Amino acid sequence: MTYRHIFLALLLACPPAAIASDAPMAHLFGYRPAPGQAQRFEDGYLEHLAWHRAHRDPLPWYAWTVADGPRAGLFIDGTFDIPLDGLDKRPDPAGDAADAQRTFFPYGTPSLRETWRRVSPASTSPLAHPERPLRIVIYTLKPAMAARFDVLVADMARVAPSPQPMAWFAPVSGTALNRRMLMVSMKDGTDELPAIDLESRIDALGNTRDAWRTALAETVTGTEAETWQPKIRLMLVSDAKHPDRE
Length: 246
Description:
By secondary structure, the chain is α+β, with helices and mostly antiparallel strands. It has six helices and eight strands; from the N terminus they run αβαββαββαββααβ.
């Protein structure tokens, strides 16, 4: 199935407002390196990036390894803030797939393919410093509570913004639709204070935000967190895409 067919299915499955053609999208891919083949997988992936450079792929490509939690060891790459059909506009998608099959697919198993839509402003992107680890927090929402949860997140961003660069994403395809993903840039992966999850941030404000605490309890059924360690040599990101990098 081509990406065009996948996106056609998304158009049929999702509300038009959720997949507007100009909405900033994130496309994530995950691979589980075969036992004992992690280095060969990375070397093959690095060779594949040379194909992207040679074909002047305009898309930014980021790469991480999940450091903890049930998905520890998973290799994740992705491209962010592109249009819904951005992957179809790559140079030679068929050649891209063929080169991936040749270079790194023999050493790992594809295990994740997700599309997310950014639902927060891009002014504080957690990807402005791709060399920093990311803390990923996934919220599972109660049925019909997504809109109320999004209002809570927007209110908190306005009144008590996070001190760390962050972004919120809503699922489009490849994962449960009753979820929200929080992506936060960490200075070194251990800077836990101030806390980034919504419950801890609300608790830090004391009893002045009981309405937020109630909204969180009434919209969320579960929260998961994991850390993504950057794989800088396996990224294809120009400094020009990050003018605010230190």
